[in-house]
Input
Amino acid sequence: MKVLVIGSGGREHALVKAIKRSPRVREVLVAPGNPGIAAEARCAEVPVEDIPALVRLAQEEKIDLTVVGPEVPLTLGVVDAFQKAGLKIFGPNREAAILEASKVFTKNFLKKYRIPTAAYEVFTDPEAAKKFLRERSDSRWVLKSDGLAAGKGVLVPLTLEESLEGVDRILVKKEFGSQQLVIEEFLEGEELSFMVLCDGVEGIALASSQDHKRLNDGDLGPNTGGMGAYSPAPVMTEALAQEVMRTIIAPSLAGMREEGRPFVGVLYAGLMIQAGKPYVLEFNVRFGDPEAEVLLPRLESDWVDLFEAAIEGRVTKVPAKWRPGSAVCIVISAEGYPVAPRKGDEIQGLEAAGELAMVYHSGTSRKDGKWLTNGGRVLCVSALGDSLELALKQAYAAVEKLCFRGMHFRKDIAARGLAKS
Output
């Protein structure tokens, strides 16, 4: 069969590698892809936002299955358009993708269906939001812009002054493009990424993972799209996984059906484990990035079989077998990320790093035979190992082979996991 992957980052690079492992796949096409992906699959320069052009591409290329990587085309209705054209595609339709497109919808949805989440209020008036914060200045709050913001629309201020400044950033300057603000109770605990493959009625849990959102070691600095991940996460016990499925995933899938928005695809629950209990911080409607770069390589089963089973309403009938051991990925970012990343710096050591680990391209370009930086998150280096310690050692050994001006990466990825294991 012939498969189309939509997207251009490290997650899509990992999807390409995973899909190519299927004996059923003869060719993978990627739109638009990136130069790193182009070394392994044919790329078509079609933007992810151009839904009609993506449909035409799939028709012209006689694509048998399309897998959507990023959230933007999902929220624009790419699944609806492909289904209307009679094309098989994996991912939620536009109505279901609202779980990521609107934090206000999601918080109200969680409240309506009594799914555990932090207390919250929604604001459109900046003065009302500031009044709320001043009157509750003895508590910590999280500020969330309503719409999509590439993982950067969540502010976790430490002081009242930072909170008030955050209100201005979201509602006055409209830094993230939203007209609405969610002010949410700050939850203490350990964050966890919990992804489920869903067919509209049921779901199967994928292996657990833990992301590292902050830019710098010690979970300091601004929020980013993710600076690394590891799988499995020791905090996710079998008992906790069953509780998440029972108290969060099952009622969410039932609630979405009740709302007339049945969910097919990957439902990503960003969780906070507080005093042993799981609470929903956010929902995403696709594989996380960089979580995909540790989950996709760990599956021994055929990803194509699983994607088709979800589309056809039989996801629980196909077994998902995971490799023993662990996987780790280290994200390497450009100088200035996440605010104003530098571009155009030469990258050295890619071949040497590739001999030690899997190197996924997120933001690179190719010019005059040289690899150059072309984004905030430039590369993701992933390694498998019989233990978390061995996977970490291999991943960091590969990172040490890479070099470019301003290169930045965290040196404490999976520190919590190591401490627990």
